[in-house]
Design brief:
Layout lengths: L2 H18 L28 H8 L18 E2 L5 E5 L4 H6 L6 H12 L8 E4 L13 H18 L3 E5 L1 H8 L5 H4 L4 E3 L2 E6 L2 H6 L3 H20 L2
Parallel strand pairs: 2-3, 2-4, 4-6
Antiparallel strand pairs: 1-3, 5-6
The structure holds uracil.
């Protein structure tokens, strides 16, 4: 391929990536730039969790901004080996600005302790960062708008494994329409990172059967073994 073709290809890939992490505008520099300048010189992608949070700003990119109180970015160890991903903040999380702090959060903390870890050891985030009204599932346009921020968060943290809590998280990370009952307990992959889909703690609270509890425990034990394997 010609040099110009290579440059065009590299730029197209870079611009696609910027779109994925939510960048909608590129500023042109006043100073004349060399024709084949490195893309990094044009605009830096958020390189830390703090700069990613700054990039999100007081987000108005989708309709979830209308009723939210707080953007719920994520919490935990920025170098966590294990990451948990839920669907979106509920009422308690919206009020406090932290994921999984309500009843489902208490259950999640229990689940994390059951595999010998503490909430502070892991990183917890959601597919969407603003509360869907009435705790409905996030809609496809909301997931499409917000998930690139989750994806960048995952890249920055670099966990050894991810636990996807419930259908929306599993579907988003695994890019599938298959429901959680069929997915749970089987490893999938997000950009090379192993993903274990399991039931959402809120579902577990609603359907507190021995079978469901055993299923979730078995999924979490598999995730724990995976991060220990690769330490
Ligand atoms: N349910 C989720 O999926 N995420 C939260 O942060 C809280 C409840």
């Amino acid at each position: 391929m010609s040099d110009a073709g290579d440059v065009r290809k590299a730029l197209a890939s870079w611009v696609g990536y910027l779109g994925e992490i939510g960048v909608r505008e590129l500023a042109l520099r006043d100073a004349p730039a060399p024709v084949a300048s490195a893309p990094e010189e044009v605009l830096d992608a958020p390189a830390t969790l703090a700069s990613l949070r700054d990039e999100i700003g007081d987000c108005r990119r989708c309709k979830l901004c209308e009723a939210r109180t707080h953007i719920v970015f994520g919490v935990g160890n920025p170098h966590a080996k294990l990451m948990f991903v839920g669907e979106g903040p509920g009422a308690d999380e919206d009020a406090q600005g932290e994921p999984f702090v309500g009843r489902a959060g208490q259950k999640l903390n229990e689940m994390i302790r059951a595999i010998g870890l503490a909430r502070e050891d892991v990183y917890i985030a959601n597919v969407v960062k603003c509360r869907p009204p009435g705790n409905r599932d996030p809609e496809p346009d909301e997931v499409a708008t917000c998930s690139p921020f989750l994806f960048r968060q995952i890249e920055l943290i670099g966990p050894k494994a991810i636990v996807a809590l419930g259908s929306p998280a599993a579907k988003t990370l695994l890019q599938t329409k298959v429901g959680i009952t069929a997915l749970r307990g089987r490893w999938g992959s997000f950009r090379g990172i192993p993903v274990m889909p399991t039931f959402h703690p809120a579902y577990l609270l609603r359907s507190y059967t021995v079978e469901n509890r055993q299923a979730v425990f078995s999924d979490l034990k598999a995730a724990r073994a995976r991060i220990d394997e690769t330490s």
